[in-house]
């Protein structure tokens, strides 16, 4: 699992416990997903390059580091991925945001893109693809296929909860993509839900059923 990073900081674990609970309502669920995404942004951006500049403190001149301005794109997979965008953006406000929406045609089983809008320079950006749940791995792999077809070269995938099946599938399909997650659950059930999971992340974020 060399390209899988489990971000199991106590603050993240605490918040994930509340996210999972049935009694957590829409507002709290949304706020917690946003907070966890923000905490995860910390680790995901650990390898951002820095450059040294000359500054002056009230006491002395010194050299100090700032981000070297690497271009970043955040790509939520519609619709649940939207819940993670603001949390990540809070830490990297200069990032651009692209959106991808797709479903599997039930007859051909081929992915159908119903929405795809990216910044026009995705080949120069590091893309952070976000979706709270990595279940079968099908939509994550298909979304990443779509991005690579348009020239994306550097991609990270970030989710809150993953099923082992989804991690394996995504690793097989895209071994070059690092996967960041907070917790790996037991399995998928026959309906494709992660067990124990948290239910349908999109419905819980947006208060739909
Ligand atoms: N998507 C969800 O929102 N929940 C799951 O358990 C699996 C996929």
Automatic annotation (TrEMBL):
Source organism superkingdom: Bacteria
Notes on how activity is controlled: Allosterically activated by GTP.
Ligand binding (5-phospho-alpha-D-ribose 1-diphosphate): 79, 104, 131-139, 200
Matches recorded under SUPFAM superfamilies: PRTase-like
EC numbers for this chain: 2.4.2.9
Residues the record lists as binding uracil: 194, 199-201
Sequence ranges assigned to domain Phosphoribosyltransferase in this UniProt record: 6-208
HAMAP family: Upp_B
Protein name per UniProt: Uracil phosphoribosyltransferase
């Amino acid at each position: 699992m060399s390209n899988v990073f489990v971000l199991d900081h106590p603050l993240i674990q605490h918040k994930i416990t509340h996210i999972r609970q049935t009694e957590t309502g829409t507002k709290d669920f949304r706020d917690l997903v946003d907070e966890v995404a923000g905490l995860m942004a910390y680790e995901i951006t650990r390898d951002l390059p820095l450059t040294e500049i000359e500054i002056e403190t009230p006491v002395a001149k010194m050299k100090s580091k700032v981000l070297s301005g690497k271009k970043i794109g955040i790509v939520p997979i519609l619709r649940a991925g939207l819940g993670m965008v603001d949390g990540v953006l809070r830490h990297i406000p200069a990032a651009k945001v692209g959106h991808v929406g797709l479903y599997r045609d039930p007859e051909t089983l081929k992915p159908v893109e119903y929405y795809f809008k990216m910044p026009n320079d995705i080949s120069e950006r590091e893309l952070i693809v976000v979706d709270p749940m990595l279940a079968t791995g099908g939509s994550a792999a298909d979304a990443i296929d779509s991005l690579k077809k348009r020239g994306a070269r550097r991609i990270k995938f970030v989710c809150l909860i993953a099923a082992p099946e989804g991690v394996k599938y995504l690793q097989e399909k895209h071994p070059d993509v690092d996967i960041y997650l907070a917790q790996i659950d037991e399995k998928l059930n026959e309906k494709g839900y992660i067990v124990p999971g948290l239910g349908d992340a999109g419905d819980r974020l947006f208060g739909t059923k």
